[in-house]
Write a structure and sequence with these properties.
single chain; alpha+beta; 6 helices; Alpha-Beta Plaits; 153 residues; four-stranded antiparallel β-sheet
Length: 153
């Protein structure tokens, strides 16, 4: 199975590298993480939790983070998310810190649920999702947790 996965991982990462988004932004799983994800069972929900820290004076509102496209583009994204079984569970601004070594103050959190691994891969590798991240200099850092819900297997 490894021979089948490695070219897929290489193709995924190559697109991010080509656009200058990997590894510079830290927004994407590493090749090893992609490999583990693609080799895992396809069934089971995946939760994607992102913590965002923005440059001082540049913290967007939840509405600005939600979508910046035209109504037609936004409707297309919403329809695509529905087809993939993608649900945004939370997008909010809080005053909070993480516990542990990397416990800096964060400005915003986003939690997305994917119906299964394939929905996650389709979403995450779609240029319509990752190209808007290009040139977002206001984003200082982001930490992401990608977790499989074992109860849904």
């Amino acid at each position: 199975m490894t021979a089948e996965v490695d070219p897929q991982v290489a193709a995924i990462v190559a697109n991010f590298v080509k656009e200058g988004l990997y590894p510079e932004t830290g927004l994407f799983p590493t090749p090893q993480q992609w490999k583990a994800l693609l080799e895992a069972p396809a069934q089971g929900r995946i939760h994607f939790v992102s913590f965002f820290k923005f440059a001082p004076g540049c913290v967007p509102t939840v509405e600005q983070m939600d979508w910046k496209g035209t109504p037609e583009e936004e409707q297309g994204v919403v329809e695509k998310w529905k087809k993939l079984g993608v649900k945004e569970l939370a997008l909010s601004q809080h005053l909070f810190t993480l516990v542990g070594e990397d416990n800096g103050d964060w400005d915003m959190i986003r939690v997305i649920e994917f119906a299964n691994r394939d929905a996650f891969v389709q979403f995450y590798t779609d240029p319509a999702h990752y190209l808007p991240m290009k040139g977002q200099d206001v984003l200082v850092k982001q930490r992401t947790i990608i977790a499989r819900d074992l109860r849904s297997l």
